[in-house]
TrEMBL record, chains A, B:
Cited InterPro entries: GrpE (IPR000740), GrpE_CC (IPR013805), GrpE_head (IPR009012)
Family to which the UniProt record says this protein belongs: Belongs to the GrpE family.
Ranges of Acidic residues composition bias in the record: 23-43
Record's subcellular location: Cytoplasm
Descriptive protein name: Protein GrpE
Record-linked CDD domains: GrpE
PANTHER family: GRPE PROTEIN, GRPE PROTEIN HOMOLOG, MITOCHONDRIAL
Annotated spans, Disordered: 1-55
Biased composition (Basic and acidic residues): 1-22
Stored Pfam families: GrpE (PF01025)
Complex formation: Homodimer.
Organism per entry: Metabacillus sediminis
Amino acid sequence: MENEKDLNERDLAKEAEEKSALSEEEILSQEETAEAEPETDELSEAREKIASLESQVEESESKLLRVQADFENYKRRARMDAESAQKYRAQNLISEILPALDNFDRALKVEASDEQTKSILQGMEMVHRQLVQALKSEGVEEIETVGKTFDPHLHQAVMQGEEEGFEPNTVIEEFQKGYKLKDRVIRPSMVKVSQ
Amino acid sequence: MENEKDLNERDLAKEAEEKSALSEEEILSQEETAEAEPETDELSEAREKIASLESQVEESESKLLRVQADFENYKRRARMDAESAQKYRAQNLISEILPALDNFDRALKVEASDEQTKSILQGMEMVHRQLVQALKSEGVEEIETVGKTFDPHLHQAVMQGEEEGFEPNTVIEEFQKGYKLKDRVIRPSMVKVSQ
């Protein structure tokens, strides 16, 4: 083709015109140049292919990174959820048991008038201690009250009053025990607070 | 995401066809133009590049599929673990409470000799019922014993004996209550079994 061009010198100008016209066309349409020069076309096709594959690689690698990041986040969250579920696992049962424990506390306040009553109460006190111990081993704690500064997170004030020897805003009486499970308040204690 | 993948796969297949069509031309054109064309080097480099990129795409896509599959497996396992942890969440506290409940059962067997004792026992029976109810609401059940066929999963035989009116291998007496938490035996009951 090069030789042909050299031989046909007369047509050079014309060809140059055509070529420059073609170049403009090239910009517009690669398909037309494809017919004119098959080798170049293969190369440019290959380059397009490379570009497309490179963006595919990039895409699937960034997708992989995203999925891996999601996976890690999910694992971390699942671990935290499992820890929290483990930490407070007995909360439901504890909440169910507290009313029984309240009644137990009240029932033990009876003054024993004879030996049999005294012996029964002693047995019941042992059962009560065992029950409280079982709850303690799961992380249940009584909330401290009398003498402590009133804390609305721990104490529910149901009465106010004056009491000698107590600072203002101090718990002076406990009506019902409150409980925490580890760092979580299961039920605040019901108290009387000094003014 | 699945659709995207399907589309990509379809594109890949189409591209593969185009490529193999091209390859036939390539074989012919390479023979004809091998020495004439300086692009051949570039082109063969480009082809190597394409092959390497294609294997990269394949590799990172199969890696993506593996990670996605791992992720799904992990999610499923985490869900199952969470369900199981949730189902038996109170098991530890229940196991701690059972000895207290045993003593409670024993303490309530006293024969009341006077009014005060009777009244105290009534109060304690109420507390006991509340406690049993709290455990029940968490899924705790007493294991049935007397009259049931002996089942080594549920019953621990500590004695054997004869008893009129009982089939062989039947529980004839209960020494200590056993408990299940949902479908899991927390403690088998201690029983006497007929020979």
